[in-house]
Every structure is written in structure tokens, then in C-alpha cells.
Amino acid sequence: MASAATAPQPGEARAVAAVARxxxxxxxxxxxxxxxxxxxALDRAAVGACAALxxxxxxxxxxxxxxxxxxxxxxxxxRDMLAESALPQRNRYGFTAPDSPWVMHEWGFGVVxxxxxxxxxxxxxxxxxxxxxxxxxxxxxxxxxxxxxxxxALCVAVTLTVYGGRFESPRPVGVTYALAxxxxxxxxxxxxxxxxxxxxxxxxxxxTNAHGSFPLxxxxxxxxxxxxxxxRRARVAALALAALATLANPYGLALHALALRYALGEGGDAVxxxxxxxxxxxxxxxxxxxxxxxxxxxxxxxxxxxxxxxLRDARWRPRALAVLILAAMALRxxxxxxxxxxxxVPLLAGPVEALVxxxxxxxxxxxxxVWALCVALPTTLGVALWGAAARSRTEGQWVDAxxxxxxxxxxxxxxxxxxxxxxxxxxTGYVVLLGAPRVSVYFDARNDCYPAAVLRRALDLNDGRxxxxxxxxxxxxxxxxxxxxxxxxSAARSLAACARVAARDGVCLFRVGE
Length: 514
Prior knowledge:
By secondary structure, the chain is mainly alpha-helical. The protein has two domains: 45-63 and 122-388, no CATH class; 401-511, no CATH class. Helix content is 63%, strand content 4%. It has 22 helices and five strands. It has helices spanning 10-63, 69-84, 107-116, 122-146, 149-162, 172-187, 194-210, 215-226, 232-245, 253-264, 270-277, 288-291, 294-310, 317-332, 337-347, 349-356, 368-392, 405-414, 428-435, 452-462, 468-478, 490-494, and strands spanning 420-423, 440-441, 482-486, 499-504, 507-511. The chain has a five-stranded mixed beta sheet. Helix 19 (428-435) links the parallel strand 1 and strand 2 (440-441). Helix 1 packs parallel to helix 17 (368-392) and helix 4 packs antiparallel against helix 5. It is globular and about 75 Å long.
């Protein structure tokens, strides 16, 4: 009971009562409405920020100059396939093993790249731009179907900005990540129906003929068959067709055998040498900051934590298993880190949403605004930027000048017909593109179509592990006539006993001699 000193006077009491009657109903209305309004505002802001980041992500895809050791020989092989109407069966570009069997698991990319580059190298940039658009569409579909706006937008933004670095090159291993994103988005669809079966089969046919990582697609389809919801028979049919689709390739089971070799990396063959010597095939823990950024590593830790927490819920267990398998692949071979992030982050939007909503969850319809802002707007911007660059750039400007391409081009042009060249690894594919069939190489980035002994020696020469006199003897025994390497590289140290006949922009041409 209030004391006389603190008790309100009659006039004050009436004023307090009036304020209470006015404020308390308004307060109840504010408390009831503010969370909804704030949530909607937060979702709109998050989608807008996600769209802005997606627009930023397409800029390098549309404009960045081209350079990658794999892109060039794939383009050369594609042009030869179109000219000859036949797929490669033998190592036709390397003089050290010209008859060694070659299963070109990227033959689909070879044909597509040759067609895109018919009017110039600018067309190759469309491949990586298309990959960004497909990955953005797949990530947006999966994330916004499974989570509220700000959660989904955060997942899409992380997918494209933290793990989208591979899109800066049209290298098949990066472009194929978009196919993995699309397949994962489909097989884990809660309302899985017959129409999804056909989409899974089509994606698997494309993936099988585009890149040798296609067994992952079958694994994703198997985990999708375990997912709750949808038509159970349709899920099983999708798995069966995914497995059968892998047989729809011109190399038959030889393609599967090659994929198995790369997965295991054992037996002492060339693939085992690749796993031991090529940095991106090293285990992630061997030298993590050399092959990955701090945000990528932190994201992987977060992915594993969320996936482990989601194993307890039957709804999310298949997705969690998929993410954990992808994380294990990344730990085994660091090149799979980008794949783990691009596929895994959108898949975990649902589990994160369930944690935020404290268990309540239901699939949502993806708003048209999301498609317009997060997919259509960045894609349109990317195509516009690419079109402007394609009209204004010369052919040479589409090749990354920092890769010293003009120097390599000039030196290949100086080589006599029938020259047999040892080229430093970054230049091998470019020499194949520019020189074949007039010039052949000691080895190149195809790797698996060389005997292990040849590849091991080639990498020793490339890494400067061989004394100059011994290196010259090796090259002479193999029949090499010339060598091309950066003048200050490790390879140049191995080539010191060979005569240097030309130098340009930091690249040297050597003559091996008799």
C-alpha cells in the first residue's frame, strides 16, 4: 500500500489512468506487430543484400581474363574432335607416350568449348557465367524453399561469395560444381515427384559426359532416395536412372574405372603420382592455408558442426550425411573444398531454419522477387558486362597477360615443325593449343594419359629437383629438342645446362641439343 508521501494526488491519478489506457493497448499492438514487421523488413533487406553480392559474384565470371592449364588442351581436343568427328583414344599430344590410352573424361566440355570459341575466346567466359547462374538458381531454390528470407539469403550469399572462387576460370572441375548444386537441389526436394525423376536423369547424363566426378551424382541420388516426403517410388526410380545414366558415355565402363582410380589414387600409376605431387590433390590438413582461405576453412567447420547436430533429426539426416561426405572429400583432397561449400551450404538452410524456428518447419514457395533479384538480375548484369567486353576486347585481351601468354605464343611460333618440347606445367596446355600437331610436349596437365615413370620425371624437372646435367640427359633420352619455362622458375634451374636461345617477358626458350 502506498504511503502518504508517495501516493498520487487525485488529479495525478486521473492523468496516470488516462496514459495507461492509451499506452497499454498501443503497447500490446506494437508487441504483437513489431516482430512480424521487423521479420519482413529483415527478410527484404537480406534478399537485397544477397542480390547485391550475387551481382558482385558475376563480375569476374563475365570479365576476368582466361587462363588455366586445363582449359587450353581441352579446347584443342575439342577442335580436333569437331574436325575429325571422333573422340580421342590415345595420347596424341605428348611425344613421350603417344600411344598411351587416353580416356578424355571432359570430352563434353571439349566440344562445347570448341563451339563457344569458334568466333573467339570470349565465348569461353559464357561457360563460367552460365555456371554462376545455374549455381545461384539451384542455391536459391533449395535455400528459399527450406528457410525464411534472411536465413536463405545468408546461405546463398555464403555459397556464391565464399565458395565461388572456382568460377573465375572456365576449368571443367569448377563449372561442374554447378551441376552438383543443381542435382542436390532436386534430389532433396521434399515434394519429389515424377517430373523430378526426368530432371535427375538428364543432369546425370550431362554430368557423366562433362566431367569424371559423376559418381558423386549417384551418391547424392542415393541419399535423396532416403529423404522423407514425396513419392517414394519416384525417389527410387531417380536413383536407378541416375546409375544407368552413367553408362550413357562413349567410353563405357572405362570411364568408371578412371573415376575409381582418381578416387583411390593407389597402385603406383600416374594418378597416384598426381595425388602425391599436385597441390590441389593433397589432404586439406597438409597445408590448408596454401590451398584455401580462412573463410572457406571456417565455413567448413561450421558445415560439419551443423551437419552433426542435424543427424538426430530424420528429416535432415540424408542431407547431413551428404554434407559430411563432402567434408570428408575435402579433407582427403583439398580441391573438393569449394564443392563441399557450394553444395553443402544450401542443403543446410532447412536444418538451420528448424533450429531458428525451434522445430517448426515446412517447405515454402520461392517468391518471384527472389528469382528476379538473386538469379535474373545478376545473370542479366553478367551477360551485359560480357557483351560489352566481347565487343571491345581483342582476342589477346581475353587471355590473362600476367600468365605471359604473348611470350609463350611467340616462342611456339619460332619452333620448327616436329619440335618436341618440355614446357613448364603452367604453359603445357597453352603449348598444346598453339602448337599441336606441329609441336608435341614432354607432358601436360592431362596427367593420367602418361606412364607413372614419365610423369614422375616430368614433375621432378618441373619442380627443379634434378641437377642440370642429369636433366639434360633425361630430356635427350626422351627425344626432347626444346624447353620453355619462366626464366626464374624452379624448372629453369633444372634446364640450366641447356642452351638458352631466347628470352621474352620473363619466359625463356632453351635448346636441349644433341
